[in-house]
UniProtKB/TrEMBL annotation:
<keyword id="KW-1133">Transmembrane helix</keyword>
<feature type="transmembrane region" description="Helical">
    <location>
        <begin position="105"/>
        <end position="123"/>
    </location>
</feature>
<keyword id="KW-1003">Cell membrane</keyword>
<dbReference type="InterPro" id="IPR051598">
    <property type="entry name" value="TSUP/Inactive_protease-like"/>
</dbReference>
<keyword id="KW-0812">Transmembrane</keyword>
<keyword id="KW-0472">Membrane</keyword>
<feature type="transmembrane region" description="Helical">
    <location>
        <begin position="20"/>
        <end position="41"/>
    </location>
</feature>
<comment type="similarity">
    <text>Belongs to the 4-toluene sulfonate uptake permease (TSUP) (TC 2.A.102) family.</text>
</comment>
<feature type="transmembrane region" description="Helical">
    <location>
        <begin position="206"/>
        <end position="227"/>
    </location>
</feature>
<protein>
    <recommendedName>
        <fullName>Probable membrane transporter protein</fullName>
    </recommendedName>
</protein>
<feature type="transmembrane region" description="Helical">
    <location>
        <begin position="74"/>
        <end position="93"/>
    </location>
</feature>
<feature type="transmembrane region" description="Helical">
    <location>
        <begin position="48"/>
        <end position="68"/>
    </location>
</feature>
<dbReference type="InterPro" id="IPR002781">
    <property type="entry name" value="TM_pro_TauE-like"/>
</dbReference>
<dbReference type="Pfam" id="PF01925">
    <property type="entry name" value="TauE"/>
</dbReference>
<feature type="transmembrane region" description="Helical">
    <location>
        <begin position="236"/>
        <end position="254"/>
    </location>
</feature>
<feature type="transmembrane region" description="Helical">
    <location>
        <begin position="143"/>
        <end position="165"/>
    </location>
</feature>
Amino acid sequence: MTDVISQSLAAIASGSLVGFTLGLIGGGGSILATPLLLYVVGVSQPHVAIGTGALAVSINAYANLIGHARKGHVWWRCATVFATTGTIGALAGSSLGKAFDGRGLLFLFGLLMLIVAALMLRPRATVASDIVKTDRMTCWKTAAVALGAGAASGFFGIGGGFLIVPGLMLSTSMPMISAVGSSLLAVGTFGLATALNYAVSGLVDWTVAAQFISGGVIGGLGGMLLATRLATKRNLLNRIFAVLIIVVAFYVLYKNSIAASPL
């Protein structure tokens, strides 16, 4: 009984941290979800952690989307194109990911995080206006980037916010806070597509997912409030985002290198 209670509390606390990062930066939730489920909550199988984390992150992303939408942070046209197009890639990527060794997926995931963090830390030209042109060409660019982000999201079993936020900024030149808010629609949709794909194979722990989600809703409120306060500091969210990715990337690489090395 004590072990069950401890695991439940760990799942709720971990979910709160994931929800906070989703509300703050629109991504990073799923980056944290799988390591937390494996190393803190105690889920034994990497693929079950991936499927369970994808479901929890999906629901929390949708919950946080409501708050950002009320504050006008969501560019619905680009967000919808990104989410619907990227879901095709997410379904294909998640089918491929289930065929890979879970430990190998986590190691590759850590390497990908370092690459993305390096790109996020590169100097970025200042956007002269907060008004983003959402014409047909912009939507085509958004769709092209979405396919790639969705495929990577599904393959690694993540919501993909850490790919979606820079993807939206690259394809539309929207400000960071708008990319954060808009990304949550895609994070939720990609995560849901991946979770359903994993659930078909029995790779979702529904009890842990429910506990994770309950904690995430609370944490998401705090993250969203902080994100709104930091919206005027254009580079700060970028740096927080990149540092978070780097820290978790090294931890994931370390844990899986130790596990893969001979005694």
